[in-house]
Amino acid sequence: MKEKDLRRSLSVLPIGTVMKLTSLTARQIRYYEEQGLVSPERNEGNRRMYSLNDIDEILEIKDYLSEGMNISKIKKVYEQRKQDELNNKDTHKNLSDEEARKILSDELLNVGGLNYKDVKGNNSF
DNA sequence: GTTCTCACA
DNA sequence: TGTGAGAA
């Protein structure tokens, strides 16, 4: 059903609503946008208008953040996720939601693994 | 009243 | 990230 998909992609929520829905401050929400994590539309008054998809996006970001991830990490994962979606369309055509989530968490672990750094027993100096 | 941008502690 | 100023 594309209609629902379309509706949930309609940006009609002002930042105030997003604040309540996500329990975040306007500052944070705007900051996430600055980092390219969300892409709200702008109305004629230059006001940010978020879609339900954006809410979901922000909610996830918030979740990852509380799991100890940095904005930079999440940023990377999200950018990669978008590219993966493109790849999936080209190769598998369609993927189950379950599989998509697996891939996402896989990427999450991947980026999270970068946290360990590669300084095991060999120092650079 | 709400949101925007920019700047600073 | 928080907060305040000044404008829309």
UniProtKB/TrEMBL annotation:
Alphabetical keyword list: DNA-binding, Repressor, Transcription, Transcription regulation
Source organism superkingdom: Bacteria
UniProt keyword Transmembrane helix present: no
SUPFAM superfamilies in alphabetical order: Putative DNA-binding domain
Entry annotated with the keyword Cell inner membrane: no
Record domain HTH merR-type: where: 12-80
Protein name per UniProt: MerR family transcriptional regulator
Lineage, uppermost ranks: Bacteria, Bacillati, Bacillota, Bacilli, Lactobacillales
